[in-house]
Structure of Cytochrome c domain-containing protein:
Amino acid sequence: MQLGRRLFYDADLSADGSMSCATCHARRHAFADGNRPHPGMTDQPGVRNVPSLANVGAFSTLTWIDQHVTRLDRQFFIPMMGHHPVEMGMPDRTTLVGRIAGNACYRHLFARAFPRAQGRIDADTIATAVALFERTLVSRDSAWDQARQGRVTLKPEAAHGQALPDDDEAALESFLRALTDVHFLHDPALALPPEACPA
Ligand code: HEC
């Protein structure tokens, strides 16, 4: 999902252009952020640790405060415009739509992804596009899944979910390899999109 991926990594989605969804949900941490809250755009500290988005498409409720949010395309508006805490600080839907519709590459990608909208971009289609990308964040048959089914034994650090030093890339990789599958960690389709607009 080219369009959703672009939006997910695009800092233009935050009011001051300083942070994208991926700033907090970073791929090298399985789309989470180590193990700590992340401050939002205004430096207002986050209140919860950033959860991984692995398999988020399969969860029945999203967000821990408001268990009523069950759809990814609704959840989108929480980081975008929420105040408790401020994450991306977007004032309203009109500003968001103006940002996206002002970009020639997005106009091209929206027209292609939503042909029936005939080039019209609105906040709901932006949310839908991001949700489609989030549903591709799927991890299946990781070592953790295999261990649960009794097929392998996990290394102790993975089994106990031990805290890892943030700067130890090798330890992080081996930890994530136990908890997610290789596709999820290394598929280029989930990584930062190229700068050039896809044809
Ligand atoms: C400032 C950091 C930050 C930014 C930016 C951010 N998030 Fe989050 N995200 C969080 C935190 C913290 C939570 C957990 C909050 C909660 O559950 O109440 C969360 C939760 C989520 C969840 C629910 C996951 C679950 O397991 O229930 C989804 C989905 C999500 N974010 C998607 C996004 C998308 C899409 C964007 C970009 C539009 C985004 N996030 C931007 C920090 C952030």
About this structure: The longest helix spans residues 123-135. The chain is about 40% helix and 0% strand.
